[in-house]
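Here's a chain:
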Amino acid sequence: MRGSLSKRIAIWGLVWVSLITLSLPTLIVIGASFTAGEIIRFPPEGFSLRWYGELWQLDSFKAALARTFYVSAICTAVSLPVGTLAAIATVRYRIRFRNAVQVYLLLPFTIPLVVSGISMMIFFGEIRILGQLWPVGVALCIINLPFMIWSVSASVNAIDPEIENAAMNCGAPPLQTFLTVTLPAVMPGVITGGLLMFILAFNEFLVSLFLTDSRTVTLPVQIYNSIRSVITPDLAAVSVLYIAIALIAVFLLDRLVGLDIFLRSK
């Protein structure tokens, strides 16, 4: 009995230590964003929404935020069909060199981001699209595509092939079977992957640093440029914005897919 109690205390102790360790940086950033002082510090000097107001008055911040949403939307829009079809093809169908294709599709995840950023900068420069905003979204899709493929692959593996066979036996052509049976069945993985791709693109800094300039700078790069000069509380307010977007993504995931289904698929 005493051993069981000690085990429970140890397990819950580790759980609480993990929760505190994960939550503490977020709580510190949130608290520091409400400071009334001129420098970022915790505990904050008083309580004020001043830095949120000043942040929203910065045209450079609003422009960088809009560009970041635009890049993230392009990344998500490209990854949805590409990642979904790639996952279904590599899991469901017997294609030649399937293992080689699967490894190739996962290569962006294994290549360092610095290497990816430099190579894409050179390539985009050669084809005269470097400095435009839409190629940044395509680049972010390429480096994060394995997450989309993994997410959809988990849903594909959970499909009973007999369901598709039953639809085809009833006379449904392959395209109709795909649209009415396969695609709805893998939709939880598609939604999960799409949300992941949007958040990853919204947060991506290193590759964006290589592909943007002063006219196309995204929010993570804008934050980096600000930190190089001086760290002010408005940067903490930007961090709270990132936290809010992450919470919205988790809420949408729970409402559209269900966190229990998402966790089981992993």
Remarks:
- The CA atoms of residues 160 and 185 lie 10 Å apart.
- The chain has one domain: 58-263.
- DSSP finds 13 helices and no strands in the chain.
- The mean pLDDT is 81.
